[in-house]
Amino acid sequence: MIDLKGRPFFLNDQEIDWVKNTLAHLNTEEKIGQLFCMNIKSGTAEEATRIYQVMKPGAVMYRPVKAENALTLTEFLDGCSDIPLLIAANLEKGGNGIVEEGTLLQAPLGIAATDDPSMAEKLGIICAKEGAAVGCNWAFAPIIDIDYNFRNPITNTRTFGSDPKRVKEMGVAYVKAVQSLGLAASIKHFPGDGMDERDQHLVSSINSLSCEEWENTYGAIYKACIEAGALTCMVGHIMQPAWSKRLDPSLKDEDILPASLSKELKVGLLREKLGFNGMIATDATTMAGFTIPMPREKAVPEAIASGADMFLFTKNAGEDFEYMKAGVRNGIITAERLDEAVTRILATKAALKLYRKKERLSVEEAQKIIGCPEHQEWSRECADRSITLVKEEQGVLPISPSRYPKILYYPIESEQGVAYSVKAGVCSHFKQLLEDEGFEVDTFIPPQSFEGQMNPETAITEKYGLIVYLANMSTKSNQTAVRIEWQQPMGANVPSFVNQVPTIFISVENPYHLLDVPRVKTFINAYNSNDHVLNAIIDKLMGRSAFKGTNPVDPFCGKWDTRL
What we know:
Blueprint: H1 13-24, H2 28-34, E1 36-40, H3 45-52, E2 59-62, H4 67-80, E3 86-89, H5 108-113, H6 117-132, E4 138-139, H7 164-180, E5 184-190, E6 205-206, H8 211-216, H9 218-227, E7 232-235, E8 238-239, H10 241-247, H11 263-273, E9 279-282, H12 288-291, H13 296-305, E10 311-312, H14 317-329, H15 335-351, H16 363-369, H17 373-386, E11 388-391, E12 406-413, H18 426-436, E13 440-443, H19 458-461, E14 466-472, E15 503-507, E16 522-525, H20 531-541
Parallel strand pairs: 1-2, 1-10, 2-3, 3-4, 4-5, 5-7, 6-8, 7-9, 12-13, 12-14, 14-15, 15-16
Antiparallel strand pairs: 11-16
Helix pairs in contact: 1-15, 6-7, 7-9, 13-14, 17-20
């Protein structure tokens, strides 16, 4: 039984009647359509029309587009849908998760570096207000993974760090803030990413904790967010072998499945043990962590049969819709399971009051909210409070043109990826900021010679008073590591002058670069690369502002030499 009057729905009699009447008037194909959340990447009506030629989905997800495009799409979808849509976005860092003009407050790890849950509340407020301005009602956030493994290539700055207590406090603060303003939160990625060094986009990854360890860490965080009223939970393509085997002792290793396909984890652990009564959504089913365990024809209906209520994205819309319909016809998804899933989807919509038709904002009205001065001021505040001086060589800071007239600058910037990607041009912008302060800045150019013919060391040690590195290397989908690849010949740009020339290494997107530059004596983490952060870094280097951030993870990566 689904408790529609209890947490997290809290529906009144009128809303329960709407859920039941809506369900009763849906035919089987329409119910199956409600199971799907479709990805609209381009933000165009043409892309949406192609979806509606296949099915009437229950939800869509927007990728960041111009605010005007998002509003036009929302208006178009309103006209296509008999039942109001859940409209989702990755509102993880701010309103920039749905519109290009949106406020980027900070990466979650930067929020954690302030050590202040009220900053996570501000993140939720920005996400809710700027998302709602263009029609969004479902935040694919907060991420309540724990960044236990510094080698994990996807959690990293997307998490609130490695301290379960801090992750819990900030996750709860986000849930309460975003839902108080009318958006559904989605706590993710159950049963918890951050243990494995592998990416669930590329493989079914593993949460390897014992049941007791999991219960005291990830479990406690999920429990707190559930009790805070989280309406939805996103299950990852992540296995939790200890709990799977405890809940079903007959399971062999080869039978263990990721949460997106596991009844033990979704029903036994999430619903029954943790008491989650809300809507369960899979993570993107285009990810290899979902596609590897079984043939897609079987996996598509099995995701719902094993306890998920909503199915995120399709590889081929027509094919996946047919797989789901076949699963219903063949009894893999029973009529009762189908109705239960659709009821929870409709209950989520009812809890958000989506059955009430409301006026959409005009472009002008939306733009007064998106990137507004108050939100930008919060972003500046967060930048100031999050930047962390991890280690410092005494006497190097603060810097000034009078102390260090000539700087040798080493930019390290990775290529842009598909998602969670690095912002291009950050390194060149930062160089300009240094020059604006009056420094003469030369960008390092690797020599083209090898042993015996290299430039003398004095070409650097006698010319430059300071060396500055800026690393702009973000985690992104479909990569297996975030490590610096040094230039030829023979690592020409490694920090080899740390004992001759004061050297400052600044990372704006990844907190773990000390692994590759352990002997750098002054190291700064900034967690993201928006303009507020870059300006704040300059202020702190120049001594106009103190470093206030605290390490939300172990930036020393557990190595002794990184602390030297």
